[in-house]
Write a structure and sequence with these properties.
This protein has one domain. The chain is 82% helix and 0% strand. Helix 2 crosses helix 5 and helix 5 packs antiparallel against helix 6. It is elongated. The N terminus is likely disordered.
Length: 239
């Protein structure tokens, strides 16, 4: 039976690119335009005042992360379908590590939302002073920040595997695969440093420009072009 793999594979790739774009917009938006305007590092009092003054903005940050994670789960499945013809085992591993990241970040959202619950608890936490409530809320926000880095550690492994699959597949320019591999290394080093060598965090932070640029390029390639050639897809699918 003659099966045309080009149309579905390009469709899957472009849908994945669209979801990737939503992930980037929601991820950057929630961190840069929402949390950075609410959370003041080292000042629990101002942070609490910001959250209480802008409850809708705080909840928008939660919603943006939730949408991002929903897209992440869907894109893990799409990437598995795309790269299964290349290596079903590695494609499954990449998907599982990405889904593990999504599970960690999903549970981690409770740390974020806990800050609002604490600050609006009223009589439920009447034994604690306002200062203590602010500090407790700030602690949960710190846990949320750490949870992000823990999730990205698993995502880094997924990126390493995905980078190899991209290079081997022939669906995309090899440079994208090498970039994803580099992004995975940055995520792994960043996660390790955050928990084991926190005094080095400021030195490592600029490195995150590598995954940002690489993932944006990969997203745009998926969205605009999809997969590079029908021949490369058929050659893997017929193995």
């Amino acid at each position: 039976m003659n099966v045309n793999f080009e149309i579905p594979f390009r469709l899957y790739a472009r849908v994945a690119g669209f979801l990737y774009l939503i992930i980037i917009i929601c991820g950057i938006g929630s961190e840069v335009f929402i949390r950075s305007n609410l959370v003041v590092s080292g000042d629990a009092t101002i942070t609490a005042a910001n959250i209480l003054a802008s409850p809708a903005l705080f909840r928008l940050g939660f919603a943006a992360d939730l949408v991002m994670l929903l897209c992440d789960v869907a894109i893990a499945v799409l990437f598995y379908v795309l790269f299964k013809p290349v290596s079903s085992t590695l494609a499954l591993m990449a998907a599982m590590f990405r889904l593990t990241q999504a599970a960690i970040l999903g549970g981690n959202l409770l740390n974020y939302y806990a800050a609002s619950l604490i600050l609006n608890a009223g009589g439920a936490l009447e034994g604690l002073s306002g200062v203590h409530l602010n500090q407790l809320a700030s602690l949960f926000l710190q846990l949320h920040s750490l949870g992000y880095d823990l999730g990205l550690f698993f995502f880094g492994i997924s990126c390493l595997i995905l980078g190899y699959l991209v290079v081997r597949s022939g669906y995309f320019p090899p440079l994208l695969g090498y970039g994803l591999t580099a992004a995975g290394v940055v995520y792994l080093i960043g996660g390790f440093v955050r928990f084991v060598l926190p005094e080095w965090v400021d030195m490592v932070t600029p490195w995150y420009a590598v995954p940002l640029l690489t993932e944006l390029m990969f997203c745009l390639y998926l969205l605009v072009i999809g997969v590079r050639t029908e021949h490369s897809v058929r050659s893997h699918a017929n193995r």
